[in-house]
């Protein structure tokens, strides 16, 4: 395959691969996490003017869930976006997506709360899901004290974070709290089928391989994939009715492309409002290349427009 990539994405891949050993996907989780931290540092960006952040935490049922609150310069109660980072449920933290979340805050003029959920394999499903849903409920219950308009909250995430955002949206409907204004899913993992056409078309990447997804998924499921529920793989939901309006974006050269496309179809066929986009020259993880690639910048702006519309 000779992908027709955005020139900026080609430069992004070259920069990543210059300091990345692909064999690390099969190495110890500790080395994978260090490599991901290094990736975040290599593409870190300063916060936009006016955006501030501070760390906080929710104490829920005996566990502490770290979070980071970002606010734009705007005063008064603001709508909020709960952001769940990607990283295969195995890597990533508040720092790995700091610049991304700060940019999202500025682009949407909303408060954004990033959640540092527990990671697999030490904490397999449902730990990450439980943390994300608990953090959402905590913000919905106490957000007024943070100058958040708790009537306007959306969830957002990239890759594994997109999976968690979709799962949390399902739980919010099933458990009748809290009411969500929207869900924004960026190249999400939604199902359990890693034999979809895109998984084989893009099995060798770039930036995410089918083999890596199998490893991540097994870590997340505690090496027992058969125990997946809809909150682990949202495509398994019994129905998709009455869910929050959705924005779903996928990338042509991504093993997870068909996952996101099919989930968007499930949502739309059930009568939900859905905006679905597939970027024809992008790859998995393009969010980190938003300042390098014109197509990635366009998709980021589409994301921001969608969230502003949901939260209006």
Descriptive notes:
By secondary structure, the chain is an alpha/beta fold. It has helices at residues 7-18, 29-42, 98-108, 127-142, 160-174, 197-201, 210-220, 257-269, 294-311, and strands at 52-60, 63-71, 78-84, 111-115, 148-158, 182-186, 246-253, 274-283. It has a single domain (7-311), classed as Rossmann fold (3-Layer(aba) Sandwich). Strands 1-2-4-3-5-6-7-8 form an eight-stranded mixed β-sheet, with helices on both faces. Strand 5, helix 5 (160-174) and strand 6 form a beta-alpha-beta unit. It is globular, with a radius of gyration of 18 Å. The termini are far apart. The mean pLDDT is 96.
Spell out the blueprint of helices and strands:
Elements: H1 7-18, H2 29-42, E1 52-60, E2 63-71, E3 78-84, H3 98-108, E4 111-115, H4 127-142, E5 148-158, H5 160-174, E6 182-186, H6 197-201, H7 210-220, E7 246-253, H8 257-269, E8 274-283, H9 294-311
Parallel strand pairs: 3-4, 3-5, 5-6, 6-7, 7-8
Antiparallel strand pairs: 1-2, 2-4
Helix pairs in contact: 4-5
The total number of structural domains is 1
> What's the number of extended β-strand segments?
8
Question: Which homologous superfamily in CATH is the superfamily?
Answer: Alpha/Beta hydrolase fold, catalytic domain
Major sheet size, sense and barrel closure: 8 strands, mixed
Write down the overall mean pLDDT: 96
What strand line-up does the widest sheet have?
1-2-4-3-5-6-7-8
CATH class: Alpha Beta
For the record, give the distance between the C-alpha atoms at the N and C termini, rounded to a whole number: 42 Å
Rg, nearest Å: 18 Å
